[in-house]
Amino acid sequence: MHVLSASGLTHGHEGRTLFADLAFGLSDDDRVAVVGPNGSGKSTLLRIVAGEIVPGAGEVVTRTGARIGHLAQTPTLPAGTSALAVVRAAPGAADHEAAALLDRLGIPPDADVATLSGGQQRRVSLARTLVEPADLLILDEPTNHLDADTIDWLEGELGRRACGLLFVTHDRYLLERLTTRMLDLHDTPTWVEGSYADVLEARLARQEHRAKAEQTRRNLLRKELAWLRRGPKARTSKPKFRLEQARALMESTEVGEAPQLDLGTGRRRLGTQVLEAEDVTVRYGDQTVLDGVDLHLGPGDRIGVVGPNGAGKTTLLRVLAGQHDPDAGTVAWGPTVELGVYDQQAMVAPRDVTVIDTITAIAEWIPLATGERLSASALAERFGFAGPLQRASVARLSGGERRRLALLHMLVAAPNVLLLDEPTNDLDIDTLQRLEDHLDGFRGTLVVASHDRFVLDRLTDELVAVEDGRLVRYLDWPAYRDAHAERRAAPPPRPGRSSGSAGDNRRRQQQRRQVRALEQRIGKLTEQRDALHVALARVGDDYERAAELDRALRVLAGELERAEEAWLEATVD
User: Fold this and answer.
1) Which of 17, 229, 319, 415 could be disulfide-bonded to 340 (CB atoms 3.0-4.6 Å)?
2) What band does 495 get if pLDDT is binned at 50, 70 and 90?
């Protein structure tokens, strides 16, 4: 039975239609995610369904007595009220349940909500939403300002709830594990049964359909142009609509996807010495945030930094970037390092300068990994600054757009070492995928602090957790999560220096280099094998040449098998 039904929903602003004639129903067992690029109308649709704003056309009808919980992007909390009082005021909320939720979200129950940061206020609002009994929860970016461990908990909590879900998130693991269907607002609004992987498949099918339509358009255009070129006398017997049809075809816009973005990875080759941070200590008053930590980075290292909110992740990156002086210890970068930093405050200042001018001030042409070059305008378009938006003043951009522009500025400068602090904040999934595609092939050194488990799994080879002022190394996110769960029931560790000896650090670095070298060798051997298969298919009746190629293939297959076995041993160790 439907909790609510929507029909004919149409809405837009500034002359642009976000969605038109949407119709759907939501039941108490539906798990629906709304996906799409920034500006496609995701939050607007959730606010319409929650009854916060009135649509331009259409209506939402809620079942009598249905209980709707809503977490907005920007919460409104009563000033001068404690966090516990805000959550306890929710209907049916018991004191112990409200206090437990706040504790799990890291909020002191007696804190005045007016003194909390924006992220902390969102967590109070999340607790208030979760504590209320609901038939349908409407959640706009519920994972924002949560650390990875808390996101893991929230995923399990929402999975256990006996209610419907309508939510927006950029956390792809949440999308994969919680949804039963999705509304994709990319291009044409489309309903997709299943998870985000199914959304991507549906987009690909639409692109292929458009590509076929474009080919049909081109073929028809060639025929019409050929007819037009026959001359006026030959055309007199043709109907007038042929002229109009030819003109419409020539004026129509081609449909297609931009080729994959693959920026270059630095203008200077990274040497063997990248970073040596030794005995680094940072204190804020009586609190020691980093306690004599060591960190050694080599060329090609890919490190994820994890830990709960307030553990010191941002402090660590700021010290490494030279933005904060340690109270003790040293940080030394190698002489060939060209550092790119993207922090949580990264945002281009609102100035009366166009978007494209801020990019060309850094570089008019951007080198690609292929050796080719990409214009600043083309690069801006691929990061969501298309058409008139390129000529818009930076002062007119939203905060999220200025943050995205700051990311673009960093990539255009082509650094060979990247320090990224929460790069997923305020980025839609499409932009995240472009960033990840670039960083996948990044041959420099990468350090990224993130609560996004997908980003950590895809982009890093090893995790470093900031725990009680120390750095503790983990193989991956599941290893960190499991150890962290065990640690809750164990006595707190004795304070001390970073875990792992210098010898252990060097062994890990050598192992990672060996794995990367083997992956590169496997890639080259695979390319050579494929080339031999193509040559063998084209050899025709030249049996001697075929026999020669066959022998080469057998030798190559043996080398490839040995390389793959060596890779497996290196990764399992």
Assistant:
1) 415
2) very low
